[in-house]
Design brief:
Glucose Oxidase, domain 3; about 425 residues; 6-stranded antiparallel beta sheet; alpha+beta; 5-stranded parallel beta sheet; oxidoreductase; 10 helices; globular; FAD; flavoprotein; FAD/NAD(P)-binding domain; flavin adenine dinucleotide binding; oxidoreductase activity, acting on CH-OH group of donors
Length: about 425
């Protein structure tokens, strides 16, 4: 594993999720010698529960159990959480970033022209999503198809593997950009645990990284931390550049579920359609999950009687824009819900129950809350400036940690835009 360090690099990107992959791809396209260091593995996606669990369910690595028994997860793998997400593409909120002097529209336009990003065709929307959407519209909600980062020609009906990792090449992930970066000369090293950044004479000169149990020094005049809302602040802390505890947001989710008698399903693309209420900070979508995940939710809340009802159970996601709080620490993560968070979830759950009632669902129950979008830990305006620069020359951050305000949105497309914008800036200087 020492081979990548035998020559100097123009840039080191720590992490290969959307922000890091986008930055690395564009830098490599423009001739930079880029080293990508990924903590997780890079094995081909198999679409299995076991592989997904290794990416996102190992306690203290990809999964964090909170004091209130809720769960926070992240993807530790090439492509980051994009490898196991629901492939939903939300546009960057222009007004939010404008408050910080950032215009992502040019990068968004460029990326839209090359990435698969559109609502699913009707033939790929399953019976459960169709039933939920019809019920939502029947009670007056503006329920619409969501934009998905899926190649329809490769997608298939009756498939449920989005969240396990798509083995068919239908779902776009940040691995696509990593592969392109490597075709332009970038080097990817998986299983690379970056411990700290190296600073000499007041500026960054590289990173210390553990690979196969041995420590190495990788050198470059430019380092971009893209290790995620949990990983990046931890690297900064170990480098003496950030406090041990930093607050964050997580976009808590509750799944509200109810059974119908006239559907035999349970295998379809989740989050095909939904509704976002930006003023209220609440979002909804259909959320058909694989059987093991559904059964885990049912067992979690003591609904043993519903374990066999997966194929006829409609599920609705209720997600909120939560208050920034709690803390990411050196070895732990904790974030209790605030009173405001709980109030939003109550409103959202009540709306989901109305939709399920209109769909004819019975035996309605809800999961405990969980979350998968940790961010805001190195916020624009606090930890980095509008160009994503830290106070250390040559050191940047580009992942969900820089999102400047509570979020409540799928972050993938926004992070791609931030990475593209950062790489363009770095290439022009």
């Amino acid at each position: 594993m020492s081979a990548p360090f035998r020559h100097s690099h123009d840039a080191i990107v720590v992490g290969s999720g959307p922000g890091g992959a986008s930055t690395a791809r564009t830098l490599a396209r423009r001739g930079a010698r880029v080293l990508i260091l990924e903590q997780g593995g890079a094995a081909p996606i198999a679409g299995t529960l076991a592989q997904m669990a290794g990416m996102a369910a190992v306690p203290g690595r990809g999964a964090f159990l909170q004091r209130d028994a809720s769960l926070l997860v992240r993807g530790i793998t090439a492509g980051g959480s994009s490898t196991i997400n629901f492939a939903t593409a939300a546009p960057p909120p222009a007004a939010l970033f404008a408050r910080y002097g950032i215009d992502l529209a040019p990068c968004a336009d460029a990326l839209r022209s090359e990435l698969p990003m559109a609502p699913l065709p009707d033939e790929l929307i399953g019976p459960m999503a169709t039933r939920i959407g019809s019920a939502a519209r029947a009670i007056g909600l503006d329920w619409q198809k969501l934009s998905k980062m899926i190649r329809p020609q490769a997608c298939r009906t009756g498939c449920w593997r989005c969240v396990y990792g798509c083995p068919f090449g239908a779902k776009w992930t940040a691995r696509d950009l990593v592969d392109e970066a490597c075709r332009h000369g970038a080097q990817l090293v998986a299983g690379a645990d970056v411990r700290r950044v190296v600073i000499e004479d007041g500026r960054v000169t590289g990173v210390k990284v553990r690979i196969d149990g041995a420590m190495h020094t990788a050198t470059a005049p430019l380092v971009v931390l893209a290790a995620g809302g949990i990983g990046s602040p931890r690297v900064l802390h170990r480098s003496g550049l950030a406090p041990a505890r930093v607050p964050f947001f997580s976009d808590p989710v509750i799944a509200v579920m109810g059974s119908v008698d006239d559907i035999d399903g349970g295998a379809e693309v989740p989050m095909a359609a939904g509704l976002t209420l930006p003023d209220e900070g609440i979002a909804f979508a259909d959320l058909t999950l694989p059987r093991p995940m559904y059964q885990a939710f049912a067992m979690q809340v003591g609904r043993i009687d519903r374990l066999g009802a997966h194929a006829r159970t409609l599920s609705i996601m209720v997600k909120i824009r939560d208050d920034i709080g709690g803390a990411v620490g050196p070895r732990w993560v904790g974030k209790p819900l605030t009173a405001g968070d709980r109030a939003k979830l109550r409103v959202g759950v009540a709306t989901a129950r109305r939709i399920l009632a209109a769909a004819g669902a019975r035996q309605v129950f809800q999961s405990w809350h969980f979350a998968a979008h940790p961010g805001g830990t190195v916020r624009i305006g606090v930890g980095v400036d509008a160009e994503l620069r830290t106070p250390i020359p040559g050191l940047y951050v580009c992942d969900a940690s820089v999102i400047p305000e509570p979020w409540g949105l799928p972050p993938t497309f926004t992070l791609l835009c931030l990475g593209e914008r950062l790489a363009r800036h770095l290439s022009s200087h």
